[in-house]
Amino acid sequence: MLTGTSIELRTTKASMLLRGVKWLMSKKKPVFPHTPEEFEAYMAARPLPKDAAIPDQFKHRYTLEHWSAADQEVVTIHPKSGPGEWHMLYFHGGGFVLPMFKEHWPLAAAMVDQLGVSVTLPLYNVVPESSYASQDALADAVYAKLAANHDPSRIVLNGDSAGGHMALSLALRLAKAGGPQPGKLALFAPWLDLTMADPAIEAVEPHDIMLKIGTLRSCGKMFAGDRDFASPECSPLYTAKEDLAKLPPTRIWTGRHDLFIIDSRTFTGKLRDAGIDAKLYEYEAAPHVFMAVTPTKESKDTLKLLGEFLAE
């Protein structure tokens, strides 16, 4: 274990299954092209993206609600036994520019099964076909509806990668606005600084099989639109201490072979300095959003810790 109470090393080496998954991933075409030029060319020529379809078996395993907010689709998954005590608002990752991955559905199912929570997933319009304003409007509208029908103190905001950014940004908007606040904030490998400015990230880059610094910067600028992508509004790592102090208890999970590990450490320290109950869990040699590989020891440990967090 690492020293200090804000960062905990949960595994000292990748499990055999995770190592196998990483090897397979390294042989496949990357989710994001590895150079800014390739990324921009891909985005300019791609067909209109579509969300991965919800698996057919979900209709029998869960109670599903299909609804809309801000003219965008939303899906809520309840346990068959009824709505969970906790309601999770989960934002999927994909750099703000990619739709729901097929891997996100099993991750949502695992959280319903293992934690007994209800999970709401906004299927937001992606950039650049849409805009950050459309994504924010959906996030705000979905939370408002959930808070009107469920105890806000039993709502946990969660998301992976860019979705972690969306969950955090929503929490910060809610804190500034006042009104009903979510009970907890959980972030899976969150993207905290669109500029990727910390030079320490360069040492991690050779180990990250999914993400590259230049591509992320290009993607971040695309998402930011007419805003400064180094501003706290776009890069919540730079949020002022007095605003961070308004956040709920927060837990972060990030692999050590993930570019975002550096900023996760920095952000956890800033949260603690602002007086927030915050902790970062690290996993040796784990790749970006490793918890989506639900059969692995690392993913199971993540969900176990998330369950303990909700039970506190």
Automatic annotation (TrEMBL):
Protein's recorded name: Alpha/beta hydrolase
InterPro entries, alphabetized: AB_hydrolase_3 (IPR013094), GDXG_lipolytic_enzyme (IPR050300)
Keyword Hydrolase attributed: yes
Any one GO molecular function term: hydrolase activity
Keyword Metal-binding in record: no
Entry keywords, A to Z: Hydrolase
Alpha/beta hydrolase fold-3 domain sequence ranges: 88-291
Source species taxonomy: Bacteria, Pseudomonadati, Pseudomonadota, Alphaproteobacteria, Sphingomonadales
